[in-house]
Amino acid sequence: MELTCSGSAQFSEAGWKDVQKRLGVPRKRLYVIDLRQESHGFLNGAAISWYAQTNWGGAGLSDEQALMLEALRLTILEHSERIQLGRVEDVKRGTPRLFTEWPRHTVVSEERLLDLPKGHYIRLPVTDHTRPSDAAVERFIRLIRELPPQVHLHFHCRGGKGRTSTFLALYDMLRHADRLSYDALLERQRQWNDYDLRKTADPASPKAPFIQERTQFLENFYRYARDNPGGAPASWLQWLTSQGHPKG
Fold first, then answer.
1. Does the predicted model carry a pTM greater than 0.85?
2. Residues 6+ apart with CB under 8 A from 4
3. CA pair distance 63, 123, nearest whole angstrom
4. Contact criterion met (CB below 8 Å) for 201 and 207
5. Cα–Cα distance between 114 and 162 in angstroms, integer?
6. A single Pfam family, by name (predicted)?
């Protein structure tokens, strides 16, 4: 029941080299699944991101809109000689912004930085603290169906917790839901990543209704994966229709 996958928070250029060293997986067998909807990239090898409150700067955008916005922002940086960088903590706390000025040497997207074989970098944009859209789930299942044997999947989001844990759990469910219980699979995920997808949010938090939706989604996906090991024969959307569930 071993899974050839891993997960992490966002890495820098040096951090990515360390990830590759730790994994010890040849590039031709390595796939990276970037789950971040929010705009991000690399400045002089450092990971940078456009952060809004609750990390919802891209909420409501289509995948195409989110990626176009990111490309535009990186292009603007490429044509800037000096760049002001702030701190996520100031946005979270609502405190006055403190900026550091960086000279611009290199600006690249994650896909360019990783320089993996064509098709080995997959962007599945998911809004932070929310469940993935049904379209993203459908794309993910199609990817899993079409993967060649003996590959390694590396998932990441911003902090390496919610979105990364969710997709590691989905992958585990597709492989093992016909043999392991829902709780056993999510407990395994908690032990791997020290993040419990079953935990409820503070009712006062703006994240609370979205965390509840994510829990309901995971329960439904477990039932789907139990009925369709490896994502077959039915697709996610076909299964939702057969069960009378609304699509989202």
1. yes
2. 150, 151, 152, 153
3. 9
4. yes
5. 23
6. PTPlike_phytase
Asked if 138 contacts 235 with a C-beta cutoff of 8 angstroms, the reply is yes
Dihedral through CA 244, CA 246, CA 247, CA 248, nearest 10? -150
- The dihedral through the CA atoms of 199, 202, 205, 209 has a sign that is positive
* Exposure string for 23-34, b = 16+ CB within 10 A, e = fewer: eebeeeebbbbb
C-alpha to C-alpha distance for 177 and 227, rounded to whole angstroms? 8
Neighbour count for residue 59 (Cβ, 10 Å): 16
pLDDT tens sequence across 91-136: 888 899 899 999 999 999 999 999 999 999 999 999 999 999 999 9
**Distance, CA of 47 to CA of 74 (rounded, Å):** 12
| Distance in angstroms (rounded) separating the CA atoms of residues 83 and 74 | 11
Q: What is the pLDDT of residues 186-227, one digit of tens each?
A: 999 999 888 999 999 899 999 999 999 999 999 999 999 999
Q: CA torsion, points 124, 129, 187, 222, in degrees to nearest 10? A: -60
Residues in the chain: 248
Distance CA 183, CA 91 (A): 35
